[in-house]
Write a structure and sequence with these properties.
The chain is an alpha/beta fold and about 350 residues long. It has two domains: about 180 residues, Response regulator (Rossmann fold); about 140 residues, Rossmann fold. Helices cover about 40% and strands about 15% of the residues. The protein contains 13 helices and eleven strands. It has a five-stranded parallel beta sheet, sandwiched between helices. α1 packs across α4 and α3 crosses α12. The relative contact order is 0.15. This is Putative ABC transport system substrate-binding protein.
């Protein structure tokens, strides 16, 4: 039950098989589907053997983490802790994609080729890759903004396909309430996010609605990659009073650098989740990502031990009670923001 299973796929191995081409990707995905459907020994016979059947044996679980940042790290740790205490027998194959969607697609096919019984995807793009490349494999997402909006479920209440998950749709309204309490004179809000992430597009629209209901002016500053994000942040300076950064993986990965630059320019950042505040953002009202991971582990157990279909398990949002307000005193001091406003 170690963190890494023997024989796990590597980034170099995936890219060698893919050869950097769409044809290579398709070949790997098809090969993986064949392996998963034939069944096998020792790990429960692959993905096809899992659907709708209760199991007591060892479950081979492929875990794909989109990026290494605080929120997803916490979700993975919560998942592993809950799984360890669940009574299930399991073996994990943990892969880290370094925010590389092509790598996610390659790993999805490799999980099937290696006869993983289930997959767990940390981050929306990772879930999209597994659900589309290996449609017969049960997959549980964790830290997913909206399964239906991501195109992997008919609805969040009744997914209907091979995927379900523990969501982390950030409490945008509460975050804008926090923004106004800390920065009562702010009128112009810049929304910083990566356009390559469906989850971020959803949150950007929610942020615009939250701003409009409070008579705030909201402007999107976005790009499709990390280099463009730095330029987007730079172009924000002088045009807005505060930056709002949702739970965007690209932003989270670069948050330490973004926050340093923004603070130096006198620009506060209200964040989508606590890890981004720890990296230098001003404040958030966000969820405990360890609990998101624990919810995902409970879903895995329901699929493996109880024989439930992923499509019959509603996607779950964290309980409101698990929200917490997190502030960064160093950032507040540098920006001249009075955190005692939250005590009123």
């Amino acid at each position: 039950m170690g963190k890494y299973a023997s024989g796990c796929v590597t980034r170099r191995g995936v890219l060698r098989v893919l050869g950097g081409s769409a044809l290579g990707l398709a070949g790997l995905a098809l090969a993986g589907c064949d392996a998963g459907s034939k069944g096998g020994s020792g790990s429960g016979g692959g993905a096809a053997a899992v659907i709708g059947k209760p199991h007591k044996g060892t479950c081979k679980i492929g875990v794909l983490q989109l990026a290494d940042h605080a929120a997803l790290d916490s979700a993975r740790k919560g998942f592993e802790q809950e799984l360890k205490s669940s009574g299930m027998r399991y073996k994990l194959d943990v892969q880290h994609a370094n925010n590389d969607v092509l790598f996610c697609q390659g790993v999805a096919g490799a999980f099937a080729r290696e006869k993983c019984n289930l997959a767990v995807a940390l981050g929306t793009p990772a879930l999209q890759a597994i659900a589309s490349i290996v449609p017969q494999m049960p997959v549980v997402g964790a830290a997913i903004t909206d399964l239906a909006a991501a195109g992997v479920a008919n609805s969040n209440k009744k997914p209907g396909g091979n995927a379900t998950g523990a969501m982390d749709l950030t409490p945008v309204e509460a975050q804008f309430d926090l923004l106004q309490r800390l920065l009562p004179s702010a009128r112009r809000v810049g929304i910083l996010y990566c356009t390559a992430e469906t989850n971020s597009e959803v949150q950007a629209s929610m942020a615009e609605d939250a701003a409009a209901s409070r008579n705030l002016e909201a402007t999107r500053f976005c790009a499709g990659n990390a280099d463009g994000m730095r330029e987007a942040l730079s172009s924000m300076v002088g045009k807005v009073d505060v930056c709002y950064a949702p739970t965007d993986n690209t932003v989270a990965l670069g948050m330490k650098a973004y926050a340093k630059a923004a603070t130096a320019a006198g620009l506060p950042i209200i964040c989508g989740e606590p890890g981004m505040v720890e990296a230098g953002g001003l404040a958030t009202c966000g969820y405990d990502y360890a609990e998101v991971g624990r919810q995902a582990a409970r879903m895995v157990r329901r699929i493996w031990r109880e024989g439930e279909l992923p499509g019959d398990i509603p996607a779950r949002q964290p309980e409101e009670a698990s929200r917490k307000t997190v502030t960064n005193e160093a950032a507040a001091g540098a920006l001249g923001v009075d955190l005692s406003a939250l005590d009123a």
